[in-house]
């Protein structure tokens, strides 16, 4: 099963969920609790649990991009072995057309989630609330997820249908676009981790430190 499908349940890939609300009660005094050991606020604890899932998901997305980068390099090596004079494009079957449409749709989703992230960033300045950082992180995760999904579809298409192209230049362009999607995914992961770290920094001033142990 493709890595992107495995991660769909782990990350909020839609990027459309409402950010979890975080309590702004800073201390036991502010929350009306005694001076004894404080239990983490449920909303804070829930958010921390979400962050652990995001951290795990980002590691797996990064691994997926690394794997796809290696595959793209192998496809480049294969391309160098092709004799342009003897390479022939085969007529597309309905199966090939459906596979083509499928990976193109994933590419469209990648573009849409990329744009959604930067649109949200423009609407919400970087020095925002933990809730805003969490939403940015989720949107960046969605962007990264579709980068993995898009590049998986693109490379799998070439692996399976090696004679679906007009020639070596078309194959080279196909691989280069896959590498562009890999770079997009890496940018998304970098943005997700930046906002992820910002959440931890913000939470340390309002949540029980035991939550972070």
Topology:
Blueprint: H1 3-7, H2 42-81, H3 94-123, H4 130-160, H5 168-203
Helix pairs in contact: 2-4, 2-5, 3-4, 4-5
Task: Explain what this protein looks like in three dimensions.
Helix content is 67%, strand content 0%. By secondary structure, it is an all-alpha fold. The protein has a domain of 133 residues. The longest helix is centred in the N-terminal third of the chain and has 40 residues. It is elongated, with a radius of gyration of 22 Å. The two termini are 34 Å apart.
**Quick check: average pLDDT?**
78
Task: Determine the number of helices (DSSP H or I, runs of at least 4 residues).
Answer: 5
Our Rg estimate from Cα atoms comes to: 22 Å
Shape: elongated
Low-confidence stretches: 3-45, 207-213
Proportion of strand residues: under 5%
Summarize the structure.
The chain is mainly alpha-helical and 213 residues long.
List keywords for this structure.
213 residues; mainly alpha; 5 helices; 67% helix; disordered N terminus; disordered C terminus
């Amino acid at each position: 099963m493709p890595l992107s499908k495995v991660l769909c349940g782990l990350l909020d890939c839609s990027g459309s969920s409402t950010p979890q609300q975080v309590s702004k009660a800073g201390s036991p005094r502010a929350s009306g609790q005694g001076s004894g050991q404080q239990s983490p606020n449920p909303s804070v604890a829930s958010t921390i649990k979400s962050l652990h899932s995001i951290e795990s998901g980002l590691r797996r997305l990064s691994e997926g991009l690394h794997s796809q980068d290696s595959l793209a390099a192998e496809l480049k090596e294969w391309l160098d072995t092709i004799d342009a004079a003897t390479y022939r494009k085969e007529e597309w079957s309905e199966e090939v057309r459906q596979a083509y449409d499928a990976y193109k749709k994933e590419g469209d989703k990648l573009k849409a989630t990329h744009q959604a992230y930067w649109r949200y960033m423009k609407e919400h300045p970087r020095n925002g609330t933990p809730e805003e950082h969490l939403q940015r992180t989720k949107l960046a995760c969605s962007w990264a997820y579709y980068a993995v999904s898009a590049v998986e579809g693109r490379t799998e298409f070439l692996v399976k249908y090696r004679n679906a192209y007009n020639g070596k230049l078309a194959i080279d362009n196909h691989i280069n676009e896959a590498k562009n999607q890999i770079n997009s995914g890496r940018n998304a992961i970098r943005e997700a981790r930046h906002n992820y770290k910002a959440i931890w920094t913000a939470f340390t001033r309002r949540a029980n430190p035991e939550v972070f142990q």
